[in-house]
C-alpha cells in the first residue's frame, strides 16, 4: 500500500505490518542441503533476508507464524514438497511457498503450480543458470506480494473503521444513482432509514427527504450525474418529522476517458448549525421589531406630547389676552414662566422628533465632498457667526461616504456648539480640519473656548445633557446627542479632547468614499 | 351650496379636544367671517352630522369643514375616505387641522382630497393666524365658480 498515492489523493500512514527483513525458512532433507540453499540465497539476494534452516517439516509447520516465506526442496525427510505445500495451505492459507524442483521433473513442477505454489525454481545442470538468484528474486517477490496483500487488508480495515466512526454519511453511487457502491452506517442515524433499505433500493434515501425538498434534491442528483458538483441543504428523517437538516456535498468521479464513473460525497448533519442560524435570525427580527417600535415610540411620544402642551400655552396666552388688564405684576410674571416653560418643552419635543428622525428619515450614504458640505453649514450659521463675531475656518476636507444632509447637521451642530460655548471676552475661533486615512477619515472641530472638564466629556453626548460650560445659547442640549447618533449611524466614532481652559476639540470618524471619483458636491 | 355674501357661513368642526373647540370658537369670534360653528366630537358624530342623521336631521349642510386628524372611534382620515366616496359630501371643502407635522399625514391628507392642511400652533396668537388662513381659504373658495 503506497503511503501517498497522487491519483487517489488518499493518505494512509505507513502500516505497522513488520517491515523488518523477511524471515525465510529454508527446508531440505539434510542440514547441508538446507544450508546450501540459505547460503546461495544470501549470496545472490539483493534484499536482506533473515534466513533460517530446517530439516524437520513438522517443526516448520508448528511455527508457521514466525516466517514470511518457506523455500523447500521437493525431497524432504518424511514427505514431499508438495505434501508440505498442501499442509501449509491448510494451516495458513496464504504463506508464500517456493519449491525447488530438480531440472527435468516437469510433472512435479506442473503439480506444484496446480497446488498453488507461489514460485518454483528449477535446479540442476539444465535448470535456471543461476538458480539461487532466481530463488532470492522469487522469495523477494512473493514476500512483497504477501505483505502488500496484508497491508491492503489492513488499510481496508482502517478505512472501514474510519467510515464507521465518522458522523457523516459517506457514499458512492453509480453515475446514474441506480447502484450503491459504498455507504457507511452513519446513514441509518441521519436518514432514519435502515441500511438494508438503501442497500436493497439505492434511491430509498430520497423517500427519507422532506417532501418539500425532494424535487430540489432530485434536481441536484441529476446535475451531479451530468458532471456538476453540488452542495445542497435539506431536511430529512421522517421518523423525526424532518427536523434534521443535512448538508450534502456531491461530486462526479471520472474514469480515464473522462466519462462519469461514480457520484461520491458525504451527508453531514447540520441540525445544530441550522438551529443556531434560526435563533440568530429570530434574534435579528426581534431586534428590528424592537428598533422599529422604539422609533415609533419616539415619534408618537413627541407627537402626542404636543397636544397637551398646546393647551397649556394657548390658554395662558388667552388668559393674558382676555384678563391681562385685571392681573397684577406677579401674575404676569407667573404667566411668563408658564409660557417660557411651554416654549422650552416645545423645543425639546421638536429635538426629540429630530433625534428619532436620524434613523427614520436617513438617506443611503454616498460619496460627498465634505468641503462643500461644510461651506453650506457655515452659510446656515451666518447670523450666529456675525452675532458672536466668530472666525470659522476649515482646511481642505476629504470626500466621505455619508448622508449629505446629516453630515451638514454634524458640522452645523459642532460649530454652533463651539460658538455658543466660547469665552465671553474674546471673539471665538473655530477650526475644522481632517486627517485622511485609508478606510476612515478623522475630522476635528477645534475651538479656543473654556474647554470641558474631563468628568463631563462623556455626558455631553447624552440627550438633554447640561454641559458644564457656561451656556449662552438657547439650545435644548440635544445637538451633540443628534451628532453622535448621526456619526454612529455611519459606523464612525465621536469623542472630545479637552482640558479646562485650553479649548475643546471634537473628533469624529467617517468612512472614506469607496470611489472618490464620484464626487458629489 | 355656496352661501350668499353676508349670510353666516356654516362651519362643521370635528374635534375631540374641548380645549381646541374653545380656541377655535374664540378665534372665529374675533375673525372677519360671520359664521355658525357646529361641533362633532369624533368622526362618527361628524359623519352623522354630514348625513343629517338622527338629531342632526334639521342641521344645515356645512359650507366648510374643519377636521382634526386624531379622533377616537373614527379618525380624520377615515372621515375623509367616507366623504370622498359620497358624491355630495366630497364637494364640501375640508381644512385638516392637526398637531402633527409629519409628512406622511400631509401626503395622506392630500391623497384623500383634503383642500388644505394646517398645523395647530402652540400659542393662541398662532392659532389666530391659522384661523386667519382658514378664512382666506374660505374667501378663495367663495370666489371660485360653482361646479
Layout of strands and helices, then pairs:
The complex is a heterodimer of chains A (521) and B (147).
Chain A (H helix, E strand, L loop, with lengths): L3 E2 L4 E2 L11 E5 L3 H14 L5 E5 L2 H6 L6 E5 L7 H12 L4 E6 L3 H9 L4 E5 L7 H35 L3 E6 L5 E4 L2 H6 L3 H6 L3 H4 L3 H15 L4 E7 L7 E11 L5 E10 L1 H53 L5 H32 L5 E4 H11 L1 H7 L2 E4 L4 E4 L1 H17 L8 E7 L4 E8 L31 H11 L4 E5 L5 E8 L10
Parallel strand pairs in A: 3-4, 3-5, 5-6, 6-7, 14-16
Antiparallel strand pairs in A: 1-2, 8-9, 8-12, 10-11, 11-12, 13-15, 16-17, 17-19, 18-19
Helix pairs in contact in A: 1-5, 10-11, 11-15, 12-14, 14-15
Chain B lengths: L8 E6 L3 H12 L5 E6 L2 H8 L13 E5 L7 H9 L9 E5 L4 H9 L4 E4 L4 H20 L4
Q: Major sheet of chain A, described briefly? A: 5 strands, parallel
Work out the number of β strands of chain A: 19
- Compressed to H and E, one letter per element, the order of chain B equals EHEHEHEHEH
| Main sheet makeup of chain B | 5 strands, parallel
Structural category of chain B:
alpha/beta
What class, by secondary structure content of chain A?
alpha/beta
E-strand count of chain B: 5
Largest interface: A-B, 17 and 16 residues
Question: What fraction, in percent, of the residue positions of chain A are helical?
Answer: 40-55%
Q: Provide mean pLDDT of chain B, rounded.
A: 81
Q: Regarding quaternary structure, how should these chains be classified?
A: heterodimer
- Calculate the terminal CA-CA distance of chain A, rounded to whole Å: 72 Å
Strand order of the largest sheet of chain B: 2-1-3-4-5
Q: Tell me the number of helical segments of chain B per DSSP (H or I, 4 or more residues long).
A: 5
Poorly predicted tracts of residues of chain A: 1-9, 467-474
Amino acid at each position: 500500500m503506497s503511503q501517498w498515492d497522487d491519483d487517489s489523493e488518499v493518505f494512509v500512514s505507513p502500516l505497522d505490518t513488520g517491515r523488518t527483513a523477511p524471515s525465510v525458512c529454508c527446508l531440505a532433507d539434510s542440514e547441508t542441503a538446507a544450508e546450501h540453499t540459505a547460503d546461495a540465497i544470501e549470496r545472490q539476494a539483493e534484499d536482506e533476508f533473515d534466513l533460517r534452516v530446517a530439516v524437520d517439516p513438522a517443526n516448520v509447520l508448528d511455527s508457521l507464524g514466525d516466517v514470511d516465506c518457506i523455500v523447500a526442496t521437493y525431497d524432504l525427510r518424511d514427505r514431499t514438497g508438495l505434501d508440505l505445500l498442501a499442509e501449509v495451505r491448510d494451516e495458513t492459507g496464504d504463506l508464500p511457498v517456493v519449491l525447488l524442483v530438480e531440472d527435468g521433473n516437469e510433472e512435479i513442477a506442473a503439480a506444484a503450480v496446480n497446488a498453488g505454489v507461489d514460485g518454483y525454481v528449477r535446479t540442476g545442470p539444465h535448470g535456471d543458470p543461476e538458480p539461487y538468484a532466481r530463488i532470492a528474486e522469487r522469495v523477494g517477490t512473493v514476500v512483497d506480494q504477501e505483505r502488500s496483500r496484508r497491508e491492503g487488508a489492513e488499510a481496508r480495515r482502517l478505512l472501514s473503521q474510519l467510515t464507521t466512526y465518522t458522523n457523516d454519511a459517506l457514499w458512492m453511487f453509480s453515475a446514474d444513482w441506480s447502484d450503491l457502491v459504498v455507504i457507511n452506517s452513519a446513514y441509518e442515524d441521519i436518514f432514519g432509514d435502515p441500511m438494508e433499505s438503501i442497500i436493497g433500493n439505492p434511491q430509498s434515501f430520497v423517500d427519507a427527504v422532506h417532501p418539500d425538498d425532494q424535487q430540489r434534491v432530485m434536481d441536484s442528483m441529476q446535475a451531479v450525474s451530468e458532471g456538476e458538483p453540488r452542495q445542497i441543504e435539506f431536511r430529512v428523517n421522517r421518523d423525526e418529522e424532518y427536523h434534521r437538516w443535512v448538508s450534502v456535498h456531491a461530486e462526479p468521479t471520472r474514469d480515464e476517458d473522462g466519462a462519469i464513473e461514480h457520484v461520491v460525497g458525504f451527508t453531514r448533519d447540520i441540525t445544530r448549525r441550522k438551529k443556531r442560524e434560526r435563533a440568530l435570525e429570530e434574534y435579528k427580527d426581534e431586534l428590528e421589531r424592537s428598533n422599529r417600535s422604539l422609533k415609533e415610540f419616539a415619534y408618537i411620544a413627541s407627537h402626542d406630547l404636543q397636544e397637551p402642551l398646546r393647551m397649556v400655552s394657548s390658554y395662558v396666552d388667552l388668559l393674558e389676552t382676555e384678563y391681562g388688564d385685571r392681573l397684577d405684576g406677579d401674575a404676569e410674571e407667573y404667566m411668563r414662566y408658564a409660557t417660557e416653560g411651554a416654549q422650552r418643552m416645545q423645543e425639546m419635543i421638536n429635538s426629540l422628533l429630530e433625534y428619532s428622525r436620524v434613523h427614520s428619515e436617513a438617506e443611503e450614504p454616498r460619496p460627498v465632498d465634505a468641503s462643500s458640505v461644510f461651506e453650506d453649514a457655515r452659510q446656515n450659521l451666518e447670523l450666529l457667526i456675525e452675532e458672536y463675531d466668530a472666525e470659522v475656518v476649515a482646511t481642505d476636507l476629504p470626500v466621505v461616504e455619508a448622508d449629505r444632509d446629516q453630515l451638514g447637521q454634524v458640522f452645523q451642530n459642532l460649530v454652533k456648539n463651539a460658538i455658543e460655548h466660547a469665552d465671553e471676552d474674546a471673539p471665538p475661533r473655530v477650526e475644522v480640519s481632517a486627517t485622511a486615512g485609508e478606510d476612515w477619515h478623522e475630522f476635528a472641530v477645534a475651538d479656543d473656548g473654556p474647554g470641558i472638564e474631563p468628568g463631563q466629556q462623556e455626558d455631553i453626548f447624552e440627550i438633554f445633557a447640561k454641559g458644564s460650560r457656561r451656556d449662552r445659547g438657547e439650545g435644548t442640549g440635544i445637538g451633540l446627542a443628534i451628532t453622535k447618533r448621526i456619526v454612529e449611524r455611519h459606523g464612525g466614532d465621536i469623542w472630545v479632547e479637552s482640558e479646562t481652559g485650553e479649548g475643546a476639540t471634537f473628533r469624529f470618524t467617517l468612512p472614506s468614499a469607496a470611489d472618490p471619483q464620484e464626487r458629489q458636491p | 351650496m355656496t352661501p350668499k355674501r353676508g349670510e353666516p357661513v356654516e362651519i362643521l368642526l370635528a374635534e375631540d379636544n374641548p380645549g381646541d373647540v374653545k380656541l377655535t370658537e374664540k378665534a372665529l369670534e374675533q375673525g372677519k367671517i360671520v359664521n355658525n360653528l357646529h361641533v362633532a366630537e369624533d368622526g362618527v358624530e361628524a359623519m352623522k352630522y354630514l348625513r343629517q342623521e338622527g338629531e342632526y336631521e334639521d342641521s344645515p349642510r356645512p359650507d366648510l369643514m374643519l377636521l382634526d386628524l386624531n379622533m377616537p372611534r373614527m379618525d380624520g382620515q377615515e372621515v375623509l375616505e367616507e366623504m370622498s366616496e359620497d358624491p355630495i359630501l366630497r364637494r364640501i371643502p375640508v381644512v385638516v387641522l392637526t398637531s402633527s407635522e409629519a409628512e406622511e399625514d400631509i401626503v395622506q391628507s392630500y391623497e384623500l382630497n383634503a383642500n388644505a392642511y394646517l398645523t395647530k400652533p402652540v400659542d393662541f396668537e398662532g392659532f389666530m393666524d391659522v384661523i386667519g388662513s382658514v378664512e382666506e381659504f374660505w374667501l378663495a373658495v367663495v370666489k371660485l365658480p360653482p361646479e
